[in-house]
Write a structure and sequence with these properties.
Number of domains: 2
Shape: elongated
Strand content: 25-35%
Helix content: 10-25%
Largest sheet: 4 strands, antiparallel
Radius of gyration: 27 Å
Number of helices: 2
């Protein structure tokens, strides 16, 4: 009965992390290019009462044995990088990646972060930046006399300027891919950092070597499904309630034992 208390408590702790994960998904249902998370669980160690295959007599063996588990724990909270829906904005600086890849973003400390968020604008110098003011890597500068900006599917950025009969190329949007996207470390602000689990970034041109292509005038929405998250939330709540009931039942059994002892 003492064991049951700790087993049920581990289940409650696991479901609390599950609910926290679902709540974060729902909180970011309208966050641009947000990627939902999924809690994954594993069982804990087992106490072996009878070893499977142990001898039950001189000529027979136990076919299954007897093992009692010690509950569950969260093994991972995994990011799911499925593509979100696209929303038209009409803003020529809003970009999407149709397929695999991440935008490269230059951080203030000189390092590079990675993002699917292509809601861009220009800063005071005409450099393309994200909503936090971090520039694309390599930087792309839009001249102040630009009449129209065009971003090709291959990431080529061209501008129409007064007195020019042909568009002028001012830069290229470069993408990065990872062997294990789920291994990226989330920084917040729709940014990710590579880790030993994700592997080093593979750089390339949009549309080439398995990289996605660039779309202009759209943003990628969150890949969170409200219906799926609400169903998962109900299931997590019921699992939490069942574990709390196991705690109450164990407590009642211990109380009955104390009464018998008197």
């Amino acid at each position: 009965m003492q064991r049951a208390l700790w087993i049920a408590a581990s289940g409650m702790e696991s479901q609390q992390v599950n609910v926290d994960t679902i709540a974060n998904n729902l909180a970011n249902v309208n966050t641009t290019a947000f990627k939902k998370s999924r809690a994954e669980f594993q069982d804990l160690l087992y106490t072996t009462l009878v070893s499977p295959g142990a001898s039950s007599s001189t000529s027979t063996r136990f076919p299954t044995g007897a093992q009692v588990g010690h509950g569950s724990k969260v093994s991972a909270v995994k990011k799911v990088f499925s593509q979100g829906d696209f929303q038209s904005t009409g803003n020529p600086l809003d970009l999407i990646i149709q397929g695999q890849g991440f935008f490269k973003v230059l951080m203030p400390d000189g390092s590079t972060a990675y993002s699917r968020d292509g809601a861009l604008s220009t800063n005071q110098d005409g450099v393309l930046v994200n909503s936090q003011g971090f520039a694309l890597d390599p930087p792309v500068t839009i001249p102040p006399d630009t009449l129209r900006v065009t971003v090709g599917a291959d990431g080529t950025v061209t501008v129409d300027q007064p007195g020019q009969t042909t568009p002028n190329q001012v830069g290229t949007v470069e993408l990065a891919r990872f062997s294990n996207e789920a291994g990226l470390a989330a920084l917040g602000g729709n940014l990710f950092n590579p880790t030993a689990a994700s592997g080093e970034p593979n750089l390339g041109t949009p549309g080439a070597q398995g990289f996605g292509t660039i779309g202009q005038g759209f943003i990628e929405m969150s890949n969170v499904s409200v219906v799926q998250e609400l169903v998962s939330l109900i299931a997590a709540q019921r699992a939490y309630e069942l574990n709390s009931r196991a705690v109450r039942t164990s407590d009642e059994m211990l109380s009955s034992l104390n009464t018998l002892a008197r």
